[in-house]
């Protein structure tokens, strides 16, 4: 085991150089990914970026075409060679429409995968999981008697019952309404952490990924753009796609002068970009701190409110920002609570630079 010497434990799952095509379409491009023991990793990305294909390769539902896949240090798939079938991989699968067996009760569904154990032990294991997921009262019900959310909980319990080393979850909460989804996410995370199962979870919802994940792998066009903790991706995004994926963002262009880019809301550091080059400045709406300005009008035109809307927990303001150098930009600001300055109200804008990102301009 020399090659793994620095690690005390093997990764639950490794994928190295995985590449997958469907006819002429490349669905997965040269992906390296690791899920450590007990870790929840979310595959996040827009529709069609290859998340499900990658998960199916890990599950053994797709035959590996290129690369290498290991589970707990053991090779389970090599191209044109070894292919351990899904049922032999000791992985728990919970997909979007995880069909329960309609003619079996909830209890029978959950104990289904626990072959070779005494009946009492199987029931006890199933009951404990059903309890943790708030479904113990339905042990004798049939799937058609349950709501969609309840069925998903049972599917999750069924996948967890054999104590798989790795859970593979594909959009397991997507068919639930918003309120139920929050609760089931909570319960699922709680159970995963309690049983110490590693998990790879597919979602296209950034907030779900940030809530569930220890680490997120953000995908685009078949490849992984950035892997890191939710905080790393949100606060240190490696490119404009990563910034934009986590929500609406204001985009400005400017020239790098004296290591900075001037914007109508103030200077932004850009010292690592070549002097004189064009930069793309991305400003999250929450980076704009707005205060009302009641002093007499100064010489230059002042920033003002174009529109303000209360959205509940926050207000959205459209601002026409005027720089001291005469530059102008239309920006969206998101401010907490009820803050509804009138249309035309003059405002001062303070920039929270931790939510401002600068990249070389794609237009240059
Ligand atoms: P979504 O969030 O919409 O499910 P995804 O990120 O999971 O998308 P995949 O389902 O992995 O993406 O699909 C990646 C690409 O591969 C898509 O362009 C899809 O159309 C294509 N694809 C997936 N499965 C097949 C298949 N069996 N045959 C042909 N093309 C496929």
TrEMBL record:
Gene Ontology CC entries for this record: ATP-binding cassette (ABC) transporter complex
GO molecular function, one term: ATP hydrolysis activity
Domain ABC transporter: start-end pairs: 13-246
InterPro entries the record matches: AAA+_ATPase, ABC_SmlMolc_Importer, ABC_transporter-like_ATP-bd, ABC_transporter-like_CS, ABC_transpr_FbpC, Mo/tungstate-bd_C_term_dom, P-loop_NTPase, Transp-assoc_OB_typ2
BP terms from Gene Ontology: quaternary ammonium group transport
Pfam family for this entry, one: TOBE_2
Gene3D superfamilies: P-loop containing nucleotide triphosphate hydrolases
Signal sequence coordinates: none
UniProt keyword list: ATP-binding, Cell membrane, Ion transport, Iron, Iron transport, Membrane, Nucleotide-binding, Transport
CDD domains to which the protein is assigned, alphabetical: ABC_Carb_Solutes_like
Name by which UniProt lists this protein: ABC transporter ATP-binding protein
């Amino acid at each position: 085991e020399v090659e793994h010497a620095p690690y005390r434990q093997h990764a639950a799952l490794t994928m190295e150089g995985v590449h997958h095509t469907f006819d002429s379409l490349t669905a997965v491009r040269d992906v390296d990914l690791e899920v450590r023991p007990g870790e929840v990793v979310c595959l996040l990305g827009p529709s069609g970026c290859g998340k499900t294909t990658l998960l199916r390769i890990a599950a053994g539902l797709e035959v590996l075409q290129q690369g290498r896949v290991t589970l707990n240090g053991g090779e389970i798939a090599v191209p044109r060679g070894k292919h351990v079938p899904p049922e032999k991989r000791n992985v728990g699968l919970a997909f979007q429409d995880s069909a329960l067996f309609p003619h079996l009760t909830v209890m029978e569904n959950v104990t289904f995968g626990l072959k070779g154990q005494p009946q009492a032990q199987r029931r006890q294991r199933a009951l404990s999981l059903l309890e943790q997921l708030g479904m113990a009262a339905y042990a004798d019900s049939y799937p058609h008697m349950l709501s969609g959310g309840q069925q998903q909980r049972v599917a999750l319990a069924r996948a967890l019952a054999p104590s798989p080393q790795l859970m593979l979850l594909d959009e397991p909460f997507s068919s639930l309404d918003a309120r139920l989804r929050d609760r089931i996410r909570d319960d699922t995370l709680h159970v995963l952490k309690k049983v110490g199962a590693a998990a790879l979870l597919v979602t296209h919802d950034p907030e779900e990924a940030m809530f569930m994940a220890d680490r997120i792998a953000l995908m685009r066009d078949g490849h992984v753009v950035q892997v890191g903790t939710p905080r790393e991706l949100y606060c240190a995004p490696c490119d404009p796609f990563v910034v934009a994926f986590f929500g609406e963002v204001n985009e400005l262009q400017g020239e790098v002068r004296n290591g900075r880019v001037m914007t109508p809301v103030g200077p932004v550091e850009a010292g690592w970009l070549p002097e004189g080059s064009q930069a793309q400045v991305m400003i999250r709406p929450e980076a704009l701190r707005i205060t009302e300005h009641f002093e007499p009008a100064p010489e230059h035109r002042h920033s003002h409110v174009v529109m303000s809307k209360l959205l509940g927990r926050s207000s959205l303001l459209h601002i026409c920002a005027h720089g001291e150098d005469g530059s102008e930009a239309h920006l969206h600001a998101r401010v907490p609570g009820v803050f509804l300055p009138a249309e035309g109200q003059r405002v001062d804008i303070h920039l929270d630079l931790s939510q401002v990102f600068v990249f070389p301009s794609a237009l240059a």
